[in-house]
Amino acid sequence: MDEIKKISTKDAPAAIGPYSQAIVAGDTIYLSGQIGLDPKSGQLVEGGIAAETKQVLENLKAVLQAGGSDISKVVSTNVYLADMNDFAAMNEVYAGFFKEPFPARATVAVKQLPKNVKLEISAIAMT
Questions:
Q1: How many helices (H) and strands (E) would you count in the chain?
Q2: Within 10 A of 118 (CB to CB), how many other CB atoms are there?
Q3: What residue spans define the domains of the chain?
C-alpha cells in the first residue's frame, strides 16, 4: 500500500485546524480548500470576488508545486461561493487559470465561509 504524505508550503496560508494543506496518496494530490488569504500577510486580499478568486488559485498553485504537481494536472475542483451572484466574476478569473481539458467542477452556494470570505476552492490533482 502506498504511504500518505503531507504537503505543506509557506507559499500558501497555513492550515488553521486539524487538516493539511494537501495530502498525496498514490499518484493523487488532495488539496484542502483555500481561501483568499495572502500567505505573507495572513490577511484577506482586497478587491472583491475577482481578487479573492485569483489569490485562492495562486494558493492552490503553490500547494500543487510543493507537492510536485501543477495546475495543469488538476482533475477536479469544488468551488464554494458565499453568493451565487459572484459566479460570473469568479468564473472569468477561474477560466484564466485552466486550459482544455478543463477539470471537472462542482460549484455551490453556501451560507457562510471561514473568515466571511466570498469563496473557497478545493481540488484533486495528479502528481
A1: 2, 6
A2: 22
A3: 4-126
Q: How far apart are CA 79 and CA 114, in angstroms?
A: 14
Per-residue pLDDT of the chain (127 residues; tens, 9 = 90+): 568 999 999 999 998 889 999 999 999 999 999 999 999 999 999 999 999 999 999 999 999 999 999 999 999 999 999 999 999 999 999 999 999 999 999 999 999 999 999 999 999 999 9
Q: Is the pTM of this model over 0.85?
A: yes
Residue found under cell 467542477: 105
Superfamily of domain 4-126: RutC-like (3.30.1330.40)
Cell 503531507 appears where? Answer: 6
Sheet strands side by side (includes 74-81): 4-7, 22-25, 28-34, 119-126, 74-81, 104-109
Residue whose cell numbers read 482533475: 75
CB hemisphere CA count around 6 (13 angstroms): 8
